[in-house]
Amino acid sequence: MCRAAAPLFAALFVAACGGAPRPDPAAAPPRPAPSRGFVLVSIDTLRADRVGAWGYGRPTTPFLDRLAARAALFERAYSPIPATLPAHLSMFTGLEPGQHDVDPPSGVLAAGIPTLPELFRAAGYRTAGHSEGGYMAGGYGFARGFEVWTDSEYSADSDVERTFGRGAEFLRGLAPGERFFLFLHTYAVHDPYAPAPEFAAALGVGARPPGAPEPTGENLAAFNRGELAVDADTARWYSDLYDASVRQVDAALERLWGEIERLGLADEVTLIVTADHGEEFLEHGRLAHTQIYRENLHVPLLVLSPGIDAPRRIGAPVGLVDLLPTLVDLAGLERPAVLAGTSLAPWLGRPELPLDRVVWAENDPPGGREESVLVRRDGETWQLLRARSEAEPDGFWVSRRIRFDHRGARLDFSAVAFAGPREVEVRADGRTVATVNLTGDWSDHAIPLPGDGKHAIELATPDCRVAREAGGWDDDRCLSFKVRGPAPDRVELYALDRDPDSTTDLSERQPARLRELTAELARIRHQPVAPSGQADLSPAQLRQLEALGYL
Ligand SMILES: [Zn+2]
């Protein structure tokens, strides 16, 4: 029997109720609601391997570790995209980024796609959500379904106490027996990595290295564009500050949980702690969260629930898209017609069940596209990564990020230097093979390469600034190249359990695994469930996004 759905998303429920439901072989029948309320905490930018319960040796998370000893812990949970807005919308909709179709900076979730708070509210739950703004502003679709929503303006000192305090205030205001859903989001571990001094002292964070740029969003983005130098010592200092911020969030979580206990809700609430993506500290040459390597995808996912009889560690790979189906299952909510994720409810506190998930991840870096699948096979977690440059029939463009793979004995390219001439060094596989002088006009270049195979090409210029800064063309690229010939895909294969830092590409040594996962990747095609809208961003919103290093 179908329950009535709110008109906002009735159209999508028609498919679920009127026709045959989409079979989901992994999902068991819905479980009865195990708890009166649900609290979902998203710690923006928290990578799993900086949490003690996921194996970190530093005491960053004493409280979370104690909680994990009583909870279901997903050892291998992955973000679908290292970007705050689309990753959180995947949590909120159970859809992959290509299905909810919301791209930063101004995409808005289609009204017809139901969100988690809407499903809770339609089922009679009280709902409240508090975020710290930026890409978590309510207008993107996050505020929908919440009776109470705040998205405090992002500031360099993210106030996790204030954000979590708002959540505690909501809990205190509940009438006896009222069911509820509370969502909390914090940027406390996001750049600019600004922990309170006592947490930095607790982890023994050293002084700022001489000459180190502050870890602001703008500086990290400038480094990634090749416009600012950051050495290994500085990156280590950033990483230490990040750890201290994790320790600070852990303390805030402990206080929130203390309030839940004081209110007598601890035995009635399901608490989920997770993150939208991780963070990188030069593991693959960049900072912040810009690539789809493990450090940016592997997130914590912990579920503490009175319905869980015994703590468990679940080793199968799962995705953030699995959150909504899991909560739908646990709370007995109406199931949306289209879901990419799988309910994990049957795996909570139960004996080992097979779970064969192919987890998807993607990324849209400037001038290209990255796609990935993560699976567990024969006791190992595999990641296949395929990166493509934007291609045109007669060649492909390389701009801003001037590193790419090239196959063949010769590199042919046309180039222009915006805002004045430049000397550009061409390196192949780390060795200088030519130096070319570019003018403000187009010029053609042909450079011999050492051999016919695949080469890692780098085009380097010592003073590459963006054209806008230099007062030149209205184009934010410093240099622009068009390389003749088809753009080669960059394909990489990693065994993440034995090589968690993804240092050894196994794509040539494991041809069978490469073929298998390439077929998995090719099988997946995501179509938008409904076209996204476009927001008019206010000057204040633009300032916030700029401060986060996103624009
Ligand atoms: Zn984020």
In short:
The chain is α+β, with helices and mostly antiparallel strands. The chain is 24% helix and 26% strand. It has two domains: 39-358 and 529-547, Alkaline Phosphatase, subunit A; 391-483, Galactose-binding domain-like (Jelly Rolls), CATH 2.60.120.260.
* Overall form: globular
Strand content: 25-35%
Our count of helices gives 13
| CATH secondary-structure class of the largest domain | Alpha Beta
Mean pLDDT: 86
Helix/strand-derived category reads: alpha+beta
Helical proportion, percent range: 10-25%
Full CATH superfamily name of the largest domain: Alkaline Phosphatase, subunit A
Integer count of domains: 2
Task: Using the 3D structure, state the CATH architecture of the largest domain.
Answer: 3-Layer(aba) Sandwich
What are the SSEs and their pairings?
Blueprint: H1 10-18, E1 37-43, H2 62-68, E2 72-78, H3 84-93, H4 97-100, E3 107-108, H5 116-122, E4 126-131, E5 148-151, H6 160-172, E6 180-186, H7 197-202, H8 217-224, H9 232-262, E7 269-274, E8 280-281, E9 287-288, H10 294-297, E10 298-299, E11 301-304, E12 312-319, H11 323-331, E13 359-363, E14 368-377, E15 380-389, E16 391-392, E17 395-399, E18 403-407, E19 410-417, E20 422-428, E21 431-438, E22 443-448, E23 454-460, E24 479-483, E25 490-495, H12 511-523, E26 533-534, H13 539-547
Parallel strand pairs: 1-6, 1-7, 2-12, 4-5, 4-6
Antiparallel strand pairs: 2-10, 2-11, 3-26, 7-11, 8-9, 13-14, 14-15, 15-25, 16-17, 17-24, 18-23, 19-22, 19-24, 20-21, 20-23
Helix pairs in contact: 6-9
The structure holds zinc ion (ZN).
